Amino acid sequence: MTLPHLILILAICLAWGFNFVVAKFGVVEVSPMMLTGSRFALLSLALIPFLKIVPGQMWRIFVVAMTMGGIHFALMFAALDISDTVSVVAIGVQLNVPFATLLSVFILHEAVGWRRWLGMGIAFSGVVLISFDPAVFNSLGGMALVITAAFMAAVGMVTMRQLAGVGVFTLQAWIAIFSWPPMFLLTALIEPHEFAATLNASWLAWSAILYTAVGASLFGHAAMFYLLQRYEVSLISPITLLAPVIGVFFGVTLWGDELSWRMVVGGIMTLAGVLAIALRKPPDPASAQEA
Protein backbone atom coordinates (compact mmCIF):
# COMPACT_ATOMS: atom_id res chain seq x y z
CA MET A 1 0.00 0.00 0.00
CA THR A 2 1.38 3.40 -0.96
CA LEU A 3 1.89 6.10 1.69
CA PRO A 4 -0.88 8.41 0.35
CA HIS A 5 -3.34 5.49 0.37
CA LEU A 6 -2.24 4.52 3.90
CA ILE A 7 -2.86 8.09 5.06
CA LEU A 8 -6.25 8.03 3.34
CA ILE A 9 -7.40 4.84 5.08
CA LEU A 10 -6.18 6.22 8.44
CA ALA A 11 -8.31 9.32 7.80
CA ILE A 12 -11.27 7.03 7.02
CA CYS A 13 -10.76 5.23 10.34
CA LEU A 14 -10.64 8.56 12.16
CA ALA A 15 -13.87 9.70 10.50
CA TRP A 16 -15.62 6.41 11.26
CA GLY A 17 -14.28 6.22 14.81
CA PHE A 18 -15.61 9.69 15.58
CA ASN A 19 -18.91 8.77 13.94
CA PHE A 20 -19.72 6.30 16.73
CA VAL A 21 -19.88 8.95 19.44
CA VAL A 22 -21.52 11.49 17.11
CA ALA A 23 -24.28 9.01 16.29
CA LYS A 24 -24.68 8.19 19.99
CA PHE A 25 -25.43 11.85 20.64
CA GLY A 26 -27.84 11.80 17.69
CA VAL A 27 -29.96 8.84 18.82
CA VAL A 28 -30.58 10.57 22.15
CA GLU A 29 -33.08 12.80 20.33
CA VAL A 30 -33.73 11.08 16.97
CA SER A 31 -34.82 7.47 16.46
CA PRO A 32 -32.38 5.12 14.66
CA MET A 33 -34.59 4.76 11.56
CA MET A 34 -35.20 8.51 11.37
CA LEU A 35 -31.51 9.23 11.84
CA THR A 36 -30.65 6.79 9.04
CA GLY A 37 -33.29 8.22 6.71
CA SER A 38 -32.29 11.84 7.42
CA ARG A 39 -28.63 11.02 6.89
CA PHE A 40 -29.23 9.55 3.44
CA ALA A 41 -31.79 12.17 2.45
CA LEU A 42 -29.17 14.89 3.01
CA LEU A 43 -26.61 12.82 1.13
CA SER A 44 -29.04 12.44 -1.79
CA LEU A 45 -29.38 16.20 -2.11
CA ALA A 46 -25.62 16.62 -2.28
CA LEU A 47 -25.08 13.86 -4.83
CA ILE A 48 -27.98 14.31 -7.28
CA PRO A 49 -25.62 15.56 -10.03
CA PHE A 50 -23.77 12.22 -9.92
CA LEU A 51 -26.87 10.03 -10.22
CA LYS A 52 -26.91 7.98 -13.42
CA ILE A 53 -27.87 4.52 -14.61
CA VAL A 54 -24.91 2.13 -14.89
CA PRO A 55 -25.87 -0.65 -17.34
CA GLY A 56 -25.22 -4.16 -16.06
CA GLN A 57 -24.32 -2.98 -12.57
CA MET A 58 -27.60 -1.81 -11.05
CA TRP A 59 -28.43 -5.05 -9.24
CA ARG A 60 -25.01 -5.02 -7.52
CA ILE A 61 -25.45 -1.33 -6.70
CA PHE A 62 -28.80 -2.14 -5.12
CA VAL A 63 -27.25 -4.91 -2.98
CA VAL A 64 -24.48 -2.55 -1.84
CA ALA A 65 -27.03 0.17 -1.07
CA MET A 66 -29.23 -2.09 1.03
CA THR A 67 -26.43 -3.87 2.92
CA MET A 68 -23.94 -1.03 3.48
CA GLY A 69 -26.61 1.65 3.48
CA GLY A 70 -30.03 1.55 5.10
CA ILE A 71 -29.91 -1.87 6.80
CA HIS A 72 -26.38 -1.56 8.17
CA PHE A 73 -26.81 1.92 9.61
CA ALA A 74 -30.32 1.39 10.96
CA LEU A 75 -29.07 -1.64 12.88
CA MET A 76 -25.93 0.13 14.08
CA PHE A 77 -27.85 3.21 15.24
CA ALA A 78 -30.39 0.95 16.98
CA ALA A 79 -27.50 -0.75 18.77
CA LEU A 80 -26.16 2.63 19.86
CA ASP A 81 -29.62 3.57 21.07
CA ILE A 82 -29.99 0.58 23.43
CA SER A 83 -26.32 0.22 24.48
CA ASP A 84 -24.99 2.07 27.49
CA THR A 85 -21.56 2.62 25.96
CA VAL A 86 -20.22 3.70 22.59
CA SER A 87 -17.31 1.27 22.91
CA VAL A 88 -19.52 -1.84 22.68
CA VAL A 89 -20.82 -0.83 19.26
CA ALA A 90 -17.44 0.42 18.05
CA ILE A 91 -15.92 -2.97 18.87
CA GLY A 92 -18.74 -5.23 17.71
CA VAL A 93 -19.19 -3.71 14.26
CA GLN A 94 -15.62 -4.72 13.42
CA LEU A 95 -16.77 -8.31 13.13
CA ASN A 96 -17.24 -7.34 9.48
CA VAL A 97 -13.50 -8.07 9.13
CA PRO A 98 -13.65 -11.88 9.49
CA PHE A 99 -17.00 -11.90 7.68
CA ALA A 100 -15.56 -9.93 4.74
CA THR A 101 -12.37 -11.99 4.64
CA LEU A 102 -14.23 -15.28 4.54
CA LEU A 103 -16.64 -14.00 1.90
CA SER A 104 -13.74 -12.67 -0.20
CA VAL A 105 -12.06 -16.07 -0.11
CA PHE A 106 -15.17 -18.07 -1.04
CA ILE A 107 -16.82 -15.60 -3.44
CA LEU A 108 -13.94 -13.59 -4.93
CA HIS A 109 -11.34 -16.37 -4.60
CA GLU A 110 -8.80 -13.95 -3.09
CA ALA A 111 -5.56 -15.44 -1.82
CA VAL A 112 -4.86 -14.59 1.82
CA GLY A 113 -1.28 -15.45 2.75
CA TRP A 114 0.11 -16.22 6.19
CA ARG A 115 1.51 -12.70 6.74
CA ARG A 116 -1.90 -11.09 6.31
CA TRP A 117 -3.60 -13.77 8.41
CA LEU A 118 -1.03 -13.15 11.16
CA GLY A 119 -1.49 -9.38 11.08
CA MET A 120 -5.28 -9.73 11.03
CA GLY A 121 -5.10 -12.31 13.82
CA ILE A 122 -3.11 -9.97 16.07
CA ALA A 123 -5.40 -7.03 15.32
CA PHE A 124 -8.60 -9.02 15.79
CA SER A 125 -7.25 -10.58 19.00
CA GLY A 126 -6.96 -7.05 20.32
CA VAL A 127 -10.62 -6.40 19.47
CA VAL A 128 -11.60 -9.70 21.13
CA LEU A 129 -9.69 -8.75 24.28
CA ILE A 130 -11.52 -5.43 24.41
CA SER A 131 -14.83 -7.26 23.91
CA PHE A 132 -14.35 -9.16 27.18
CA ASP A 133 -14.88 -5.92 29.05
CA PRO A 134 -17.94 -6.30 31.35
CA ALA A 135 -19.67 -3.44 29.52
CA VAL A 136 -20.07 -5.69 26.49
CA PHE A 137 -21.89 -8.37 28.46
CA ASN A 138 -24.28 -5.73 29.77
CA SER A 139 -25.35 -4.90 26.21
CA LEU A 140 -26.10 -8.26 24.63
CA GLY A 141 -29.11 -6.92 22.73
CA GLY A 142 -27.00 -4.19 21.23
CA MET A 143 -24.26 -6.68 20.38
CA ALA A 144 -26.76 -8.90 18.51
CA LEU A 145 -27.80 -5.91 16.40
CA VAL A 146 -24.15 -5.00 15.82
CA ILE A 147 -23.23 -8.52 14.67
CA THR A 148 -26.05 -8.42 12.11
CA ALA A 149 -24.97 -4.95 10.99
CA ALA A 150 -21.38 -6.19 10.62
CA PHE A 151 -22.44 -9.08 8.39
CA MET A 152 -24.48 -6.72 6.21
CA ALA A 153 -21.44 -4.45 5.82
CA ALA A 154 -19.27 -7.43 4.85
CA VAL A 155 -21.73 -8.52 2.15
CA GLY A 156 -21.77 -4.96 0.83
CA MET A 157 -17.98 -4.70 0.87
CA VAL A 158 -17.50 -7.88 -1.16
CA THR A 159 -20.26 -6.91 -3.62
CA MET A 160 -18.66 -3.47 -3.98
CA ARG A 161 -15.42 -5.15 -4.98
CA GLN A 162 -17.26 -6.73 -7.95
CA LEU A 163 -18.50 -3.42 -9.36
CA ALA A 164 -17.01 -2.19 -12.62
CA GLY A 165 -17.34 1.18 -14.31
CA VAL A 166 -19.14 2.81 -11.35
CA GLY A 167 -17.90 6.19 -10.18
CA VAL A 168 -17.26 6.77 -6.48
CA PHE A 169 -19.92 9.46 -6.09
CA THR A 170 -22.35 7.72 -8.44
CA LEU A 171 -22.31 4.73 -6.09
CA GLN A 172 -22.78 6.98 -3.06
CA ALA A 173 -25.69 8.71 -4.78
CA TRP A 174 -27.46 5.41 -5.44
CA ILE A 175 -26.80 4.18 -1.89
CA ALA A 176 -28.45 7.33 -0.58
CA ILE A 177 -31.39 7.20 -3.02
CA PHE A 178 -32.12 3.54 -2.25
CA SER A 179 -31.73 3.94 1.53
CA TRP A 180 -33.84 6.85 2.71
CA PRO A 181 -37.30 5.99 1.27
CA PRO A 182 -37.67 2.66 3.17
CA MET A 183 -36.38 4.28 6.36
CA PHE A 184 -38.91 7.12 6.15
CA LEU A 185 -41.68 4.69 5.19
CA LEU A 186 -40.97 2.46 8.20
CA THR A 187 -40.82 5.53 10.43
CA ALA A 188 -44.20 6.71 9.13
CA LEU A 189 -45.73 3.28 9.80
CA ILE A 190 -44.13 2.52 13.17
CA GLU A 191 -43.23 5.84 14.81
CA PRO A 192 -44.84 8.74 12.87
CA HIS A 193 -44.26 11.16 15.76
CA GLU A 194 -40.52 11.04 15.00
CA PHE A 195 -40.91 13.39 12.03
CA ALA A 196 -42.02 16.25 14.27
CA ALA A 197 -39.48 15.29 16.94
CA THR A 198 -36.66 15.44 14.39
CA LEU A 199 -37.73 18.83 13.05
CA ASN A 200 -37.69 20.15 16.63
CA ALA A 201 -34.41 18.48 17.58
CA SER A 202 -31.49 20.50 18.94
CA TRP A 203 -28.54 21.77 16.93
CA LEU A 204 -26.48 18.95 18.44
CA ALA A 205 -28.77 16.29 16.96
CA TRP A 206 -28.81 18.00 13.56
CA SER A 207 -25.02 18.33 13.69
CA ALA A 208 -24.87 14.58 14.26
CA ILE A 209 -27.10 13.93 11.23
CA LEU A 210 -24.94 16.25 9.11
CA TYR A 211 -21.69 14.62 10.23
CA THR A 212 -22.93 11.08 9.57
CA ALA A 213 -23.88 12.19 6.05
CA VAL A 214 -20.79 14.23 5.16
CA GLY A 215 -18.03 12.81 7.36
CA ALA A 216 -18.90 9.12 7.46
CA SER A 217 -20.53 8.70 4.03
CA LEU A 218 -19.55 11.47 1.62
CA PHE A 219 -15.91 11.18 2.68
CA GLY A 220 -15.52 7.86 4.50
CA HIS A 221 -17.44 5.48 2.26
CA ALA A 222 -16.53 7.22 -0.98
CA ALA A 223 -12.86 6.98 -0.05
CA MET A 224 -13.29 3.33 0.93
CA PHE A 225 -14.80 2.55 -2.48
CA TYR A 226 -11.82 4.31 -4.09
CA LEU A 227 -9.43 2.04 -2.17
CA LEU A 228 -11.42 -1.13 -2.83
CA GLN A 229 -11.02 -0.49 -6.54
CA ARG A 230 -7.26 -0.69 -6.04
CA TYR A 231 -6.69 -3.22 -3.24
CA GLU A 232 -8.14 -6.57 -2.16
CA VAL A 233 -10.93 -6.69 0.42
CA SER A 234 -8.79 -8.94 2.61
CA LEU A 235 -6.09 -6.23 2.75
CA ILE A 236 -8.34 -3.20 3.26
CA SER A 237 -10.90 -4.55 5.72
CA PRO A 238 -8.43 -5.53 8.50
CA ILE A 239 -6.93 -2.03 8.55
CA THR A 240 -10.36 -0.65 9.44
CA LEU A 241 -9.86 -2.32 12.82
CA LEU A 242 -8.34 1.03 13.76
CA ALA A 243 -11.84 2.54 13.73
CA PRO A 244 -13.01 0.81 16.93
CA VAL A 245 -9.85 1.85 18.76
CA ILE A 246 -10.54 5.44 17.78
CA GLY A 247 -14.20 4.94 18.63
CA VAL A 248 -13.29 3.66 22.10
CA PHE A 249 -11.02 6.68 22.60
CA PHE A 250 -13.81 9.12 21.71
CA GLY A 251 -16.26 7.09 23.77
CA VAL A 252 -14.05 7.50 26.82
CA THR A 253 -13.17 11.15 26.30
CA LEU A 254 -16.48 12.50 24.96
CA TRP A 255 -19.19 10.11 26.15
CA GLY A 256 -17.69 9.07 29.47
CA ASP A 257 -17.11 5.35 28.84
CA GLU A 258 -14.88 3.76 31.47
CA LEU A 259 -11.34 2.97 30.22
CA SER A 260 -10.24 -0.47 31.40
CA TRP A 261 -6.94 -2.33 31.08
CA ARG A 262 -8.54 -4.56 28.43
CA MET A 263 -9.23 -1.52 26.26
CA VAL A 264 -5.63 -0.30 26.63
CA VAL A 265 -3.93 -3.65 25.93
CA GLY A 266 -6.42 -4.59 23.23
CA GLY A 267 -5.95 -1.21 21.55
CA ILE A 268 -2.17 -1.66 21.46
CA MET A 269 -2.57 -5.16 19.97
CA THR A 270 -4.97 -3.86 17.34
CA LEU A 271 -2.60 -1.06 16.34
CA ALA A 272 0.30 -3.52 16.09
CA GLY A 273 -1.67 -5.90 13.89
CA VAL A 274 -2.92 -3.09 11.66
CA LEU A 275 0.64 -1.82 11.24
CA ALA A 276 1.81 -5.30 10.21
CA ILE A 277 -0.95 -5.46 7.59
CA ALA A 278 -0.38 -1.95 6.27
CA LEU A 279 3.40 -2.35 5.92
CA ARG A 280 3.10 -5.63 3.99
CA LYS A 281 4.97 -5.23 0.70
CA PRO A 282 3.21 -6.14 -2.54
CA PRO A 283 4.44 -9.56 -3.70
CA ASP A 284 6.69 -10.03 -6.71
CA PRO A 285 5.07 -11.99 -9.54
CA ALA A 286 7.34 -14.93 -8.76
CA SER A 287 6.34 -14.96 -5.12
CA ALA A 288 2.70 -14.05 -5.51
CA GLN A 289 1.65 -17.47 -4.35
CA GLU A 290 3.40 -16.92 -1.00
CA ALA A 291 2.19 -13.40 -0.18
From TrEMBL:
Pfam families found in the cross-reference section: EamA
Domain named EamA: residues: 6-131, 142-277
Topological type in the membrane: Multi-pass membrane protein
Subcellular location: Membrane
Name the record gives this protein: Permease of the drug/metabolite transporter (DMT) superfamily
Membrane-crossing segments per the record: 33-54, 61-80, 86-107, 114-132, 138-156, 163-183, 203-228, 235-255, 261-279
Record lineage: Bacteria, Pseudomonadati, Pseudomonadota, Alphaproteobacteria, Hyphomicrobiales
Record flagged with keyword Transmembrane helix: yes
Family to which the UniProt record says this protein belongs: Belongs to the EamA transporter family.
Keyword vocabulary terms for this entry: Membrane, Transmembrane, Transmembrane helix
One Gene Ontology cellular component: membrane
Superkingdom field: Bacteria
Keyword Ion transport: no
